[in-house]
Write a structure and sequence with these properties.
By secondary structure, this protein is mainly alpha-helical. It has a single domain, classed as Winged helix-like DNA-binding domain superfamily/Winged helix DNA-binding domain (Arc Repressor Mutant, subunit A), CATH 1.10.10. It has six helices and three strands; from the N terminus they run ααβααββαα. The protein has a three-stranded antiparallel beta sheet.
Length: 121
């Protein structure tokens, strides 16, 4: 992994590092929302929601589309939904106390190289 890629990944992880932002992203994973809908869904104050949305936009995790006087927010793309899905799966697995048997990532060999099937797909 290059230094530049590691920086980009760390930057994305930073944006996911607060429960309030993750909750907002969780709402947006279901469907696009206005700020008012996000306030109602999260119970957060309007300035807090707006601040978090600005940070999420800056990190290219959400996009905004103006509809009349309102902005409607949505996930940037399907990769953001996948990040949330994997993070949720990981958190649930940790909470259950289950542990994977193998330390090797599926699709990668134990030495870090890609297996044939992962490299082909």
């Amino acid at each position: 992994m290059t230094e530049e890629l590691a920086e980009r990944i760390a930057d994305t992880m930073f944006a996911l590092a607060t429960p309030s932002r993750v909750r907002i992203l969780g709402c947006l994973r279901e469907r696009p929302h206005t700020v008012g809908e996000l306030i109602a869904a999260t119970g957060m104050a309007q300035p807090a929601v707006s601040h978090q949305l600005r940070l999420l936009r800056d990190h290219r995790l959400v996009v905004a589309e103006r509809r009349g006087r309102e902005r409607v927010y949505a996930l940037y793309d399907e990769h953001v939904a996948s990040l949330l899905d994997e993070a949720e799966r990981h958190a649930r697995q940790l909470a259950s106390g289950r542990r994977r048997r193998s330390h090797a990532y599926p699709g990668r060999q134990a030495d870090g190289g890609q297996s044939r099937s992962a490299a082909d797909g």
